[in-house]
Amino acid sequence: MLLRKMLRDMKAKKAQFISIFLMAILGVLIYSGMNAEWYGMRQEVDKYYKDMRLADYWVKSNNFTKADVDKVKNISGVKSVARRLTFDSSLDMKDDPTLRINIVESNIISLPLLVNGEGFEISKDGIWLDDSFANARGLRIGDKLKFELNGLKLEKNILGLIMHPEYVHNVEDNSVLVPNHKTFGFAFLSSAALPQGIQIPYNQLLIEKDDKIINENLKSQIEDIFSDRYSIVIGRDMQPSVVAFDTEIEQNKAMGGVFPVVFFLIAALAMLTTMTRMTNNQRTQIGILKALGFSKRKILFHYISYGVWIGFIGGIIGLIVGPLLIPPILFTMQKTIYSLPNWSIAIAPASFVSVILSVLCCGASSFFACRQQMKEVPASSLRPKPPKVGKHTRLEKSKLWHKFGFSVQWNIRDLIRSPIRSIMAVVGVMGCAALLLFGLGLKDSINGVSTWMYGDLNVYESKINLQKSITDGELKNIKNTYKGQWIQESKVQIRYNSISESGALTVLSEGDQIIYENENGQKIVMPKEGIGISYKMAEVIKAKIGDTIEWRIMGSKDWVKSDIKAIYRTPMGQGIAMSEKAYTKIGQKYLETALLTSEKSSNIKKVAGIKSIQDKNQLIDSFNDLLESMQMIVVILIIAAFVLGSVVLYNLGVLSFTERNRELATLKVLGFFSKQIRVLLLQQNIWLTIVGIIGGLPFGFILVRFMLSTMSKETDMIAQITPISWALSIAATFLLSMVVSLFLSMKVKHIDMVSSLKSVE
Amino acid sequence: MSLINFEKVSKVYDVGAVKFKAVDGISFEIDKGEFVVILGPSGAGKSTVLNLLGGMDHATEGSIYIDGVDITKYDENGLTAYRRDVIGFIFQFYNLIPSLTAYENVAITKENKKDVLDPKTTLSLVGLKDHFDKFPAQLSGGEQQRVSIARAICKNPKLLLCDEPTGALDSETGVIILSLLQKMSRESGHTVVIVTHNSALAPAADRVIKMRSGKISDQIINKSPLAVEEVNW
After folding, report:
1. Per-residue model confidence as pLDDT tens digits over A384-401
2. Mean pLDDT comparison of B99-103, B148-152, B164-168, highest-scoring range
3. Please, which residues 351-390 of chain A have a Cβ atom closer than 8 Å to chain B?
4. A262 touches A436 (CB < 8 A)
5. Quick one: which H or E segment has residue B67?
6. Bridge-partner residues for B218, per DSSP?
7. Alpha-carbon distance B116 to A496, whole Å?
8. Which residue has the higher pLDDT, A391 or A282?
9. Residue B185 clears pLDDT 70, i.e. is over it
10. Could you tell me if A145 and A156 are in contact, meaning their C-beta atoms sit under 8 angstroms apart?
11. Between these two residues, A102 and A481, which has the higher pLDDT value?
């Protein structure tokens, strides 16, 4: 019987209960949707790594021998070891794509996953090509592929198309955020496919741990074996592709956590106000129930059940719809960046917790709302409630108070009289403004990185990469033909105190093709002595200006000490930079690797010694792909913002309307026109909206900053929000609030004076 | 000439399939400055008469002339302006705005109408000189009703309409309120119409209109009405 009463009560106040219901759905929906996305990605990638036996450690050095393999195998806890030669070869095609070729001796660790064609086998003679690269380039099984290994020209048939667990984030190096499959790919072939008698200079050892024997010092023991020569041991936690994907997952996890907080808060507040109002109205009913002999607990349970049911059903709907709705949208974006064999959703255990949370939020707020009513004895709850006491506010003592018109005075007192309602309106508007700014700001920031990186910092048009084997004559020839800024780019290992990190080294000749900016956005020039370090790198290794750090170029054994003289900011490719002068001063040999020029790539001829010519527009294009796929996220955020804003404001409007029905009817009887009353109501909403917007915008900005800070340590993004986005967020929130208010104020016309003034409610 | 002229006025409510005649073709007149009591048991239609008179409801049939103008011809805005300029209302449950003080509840009329009496003067007139800054919840029922009277007369209305003004008060306070209303009529020349089911008030009125089942059952004109205090309660 009480259940029937609940359903009828809900029907009578459907606008309010539907809005609470929506908030509960949205909170759980977005949370479980985001969870299903990252949890699905986590599970898929873990399975992928496991199935393909992704190596646990990679040792990079030169010329690994069979003896090296045996030495590592003897460490306890090592299950298997394999040698591999990995090198980049520039292909003779348009735009000079780079192919990362892996020559393997055995096929036991880090296996390629076959997409199409023949399976990879050591005994087969041919090459297995990156599926994405093949698609982007229009290469097919059976086509021939020409490449070069240390001057040795080779040609192999493509036998199969593959994916590989080391290439989930399939990019040339970690300065690239979005893969461009046209310019970079990978390939695998067996060592047996090379001509007989060639000494293969294996430069990687792949190591697989034993699941049973756990050796905690495995990494340092491996390091000890190769301590006598240049070497670096990389665990999975440092493998660029693994790290990039893990960071992505963490980021999605963080993002999913932000939303439900806002929605649950709103749901709880809405529940609180609605239930307070309802139990107030039904206090006579409660008294009757008590008089009929229902126990206090039973009545309390009855009212709590309103919240529990709404929270529960809303939560379940969210739990089911979220994973079906959100991941597909996000996956389209993820697919442009990451290559995984399968993209599936998985419901994370935490999603169930969010349903419980939804039930708790709604249930607890109903409890608090009606606990007050329960305290009264039946006799007193059968009597009408004395009117709420108005209060003199401190504001009234000031002289200013009397200058306010009546409507201002009335609205101020009304706000103070129902603080929860006011807070809820402000929170709702805040959420709306914050989400709008968050969505637009996120897009702006990523867009900003593109203009920052390719507009402000890298001012060159094209980059001419030189071959490693370039002769002095060829270099001289290029120097005579093209003008620009010469640079040397190398990979380095950097260490400070106990922290070691790999990064990029850039040595600069005189020129103005590449610009450096300090933390305040001012241009700086690399000093004649010492080094500059990128902001994010300095943060990671916890170094500051004046500190002395150590670094060495990959492949060299000796560490070099340098003082940090400058800190510069760069969105991608963290590391160190120095002038040619400073570089040669410390006894290093300056070897140009690339020329940055303002010449268009179409005007550059690929003469001898040039490895590839990169056009900046290519890089910008791949960035724009990312931006486009982000569009969907922005749309989701905007929809969430609007739903949040309109539901909260409408709900409150109805609430305040019923609460003040009598007062409004009185005004009508006194001869106030509907229009005057509407203005009165609108005024309050305008105040609350303005406060909400002012409070919400900084929150949105913080959200953008927070999201960007969860990006990987390779990227340094600055929250950049254009004035247009600020203006749009403000205008859209304000407009939404006004539309809802106008919609509500239509009701003024229908206030029934006769019935609302007749009796005490 | 009479101030109010009801001509064959009917009010029919549609209650589902049944049509309910709350007021059934009644006619009466009220002169300016009269102290009128409309008497009848509950459901007799007396409140409906008051609502029609106050422009809060539309008549189904007939005409209501106030100062010679037929208010049944007014549209929504016309009625609002009529309520603003002509009518002062007093309810059983006061209907004060809880978030405004006594003074502000009266001064609210200034927002809407220019030629109002000074709120402080009117509040003093009803004997609330010392309670300007109190909120309704801090006042007794009788005091609240006096605020509501002050609010009504502050507008200086032609017509003061009271719906069971003492219904929620004890008899002692009720007498004070009623004698205040009578004083308004005698001394300031307001036309006062009171709806009540308490026939004890009849001897104090200039005119008594008795109603039963939507019709006027009797009309008495008192040549020498008693003062409210003299009536035997």
Report:
1. 555 555 566 666 666 666
2. B148-152
3. 386-390
4. no
5. none
6. B210
7. 83
8. A282
9. yes
10. yes
11. A102
CB contact under 8 A, A760 and B77: no
Specify whether the CB–CB gap between A116 and A136 falls below 8 A: no
- Residue found under tokens 């009797």: B218
Read off the pLDDT band of A379 (50, 70, 90). Answer: low
Q: What is the pLDDT of residue A134?
A: 94
Q: How far apart are CA A197 and CA A195, in angstroms?
A: 6
Q: Alpha carbon of B189 to those of A674, B33, B112, B159, B203: distances in Å?
A: 31, 5, 23, 10, 19
Cβ–Cβ < 8 Å for A563, A457: no
Token pair of A538 as six digits: 């300095």
SS3 content of chain B, % helix, strand, coil (to 5): 35, 30, 35
**Other residues' Cβ atoms within 10 Å of the Cβ of residue A358:** 32
Convert the pLDDT of each residue in A181-191 to its tens digit. 888 999 999 99
Task: Return the C-alpha torsion angle A264, A266, A272, A278, nearest 10.
Answer: -120
Angstrom distance (rounded) from CA B141 to CA B162:
16
H or E element at residue A102 = strand A98-104
Q: What is the mean pLDDT of residues A99-120?
A: 93
pLDDT of amino acid A158: 93
CA distance A299 to A461: 75
Q: Which of B97, B114, B140, B153 to mutate to test the interface with A (most CBs of A within 10 A)?
A: B97
Q: B133 contacts in A (CB within 8 Å)?
A: 392
Which residues of chain A make contact with B54, given a CB cutoff of 8 A?
669
Predicted confidence (pLDDT) at residue A761 exceeds the cutoff of 50: no
Average pLDDT rounded to a whole number, residues A513-523: 88
In this predicted model, what pLDDT tens digit does every residue of A542-581 receive, in sequence order? 888 999 999 988 777 788 999 999 999 988 778 999 999 9
Q: Are B68 and B1 in contact (CB under 8 A)?
A: yes
Chain A partners within 8 Å of B138 (Cβ): 389
| Predicted confidence band of residue A53 (pLDDT cuts 50, 70, 90) | very high
Question: Would you say A120 and A156 are in contact if contact means Cβ atoms under 8 Å apart?
Answer: no
For the record, the structure tokens of B144 come out as 């609240």
Q: How far apart are CA A646 and CA A640, in angstroms?
A: 10
Q: Which of residues 386-445 of A touch B (CB under 8 A)?
A: 386-392, 405-407, 409-410, 413-414, 417
What is the distance between the alpha carbons of residues A171 and A174, in angstroms, rounded to a whole number? 7
A751 CA to chain B: closest CA distance, Å? 11
Higher pLDDT, A711 or A692: A692
The model's pTM is 0.75
Q: What is the ipTM of this complex?
A: 0.75
Helix residue spans in B31-91 (DSSP H): 46-53, 76-85
d(Cα A321, Cα A300) in Å, to the nearest integer? 32
Interval A452-479: pLDDT, tens: 888 888 889 888 888 877 888 888 888 8
Task: Give pLDDT, residue A386.
Answer: 56
Residue A667 DSSP class: H
CB A273 within 8 A of CB A307: no
Does residue B32 contact residue B222 with C-beta atoms inside 8 Å?
no
Measured CA to CA, the distance from residue B105 to residue B96 in angstroms comes to 7
Q: CA-to-CA distance for A334 and A179, rounded, in angstroms?
A: 11
Q: How far apart are CA A534 and CA A556, in angstroms?
A: 22
How many residues are there in chain A? 761
Q: What is the pLDDT of residue A698?
A: 94
> What is the distance in angstroms between the Cα of A307 and the nearest Cα belonging to chain B?
30
How many CB atoms neighbour CB A375 within 10 A? Answer: 9
Tokens of A751: 């206030």
The hierarchical CATH code for the domain B32-59+86-230 is 3.40.50.300
Nearest by CB to B98, which of A390, A757, A758?
A390
pLDDT at A97: 87
Q: Is B198 helix (H, G, I), strand (E, B) or coil?
A: coil
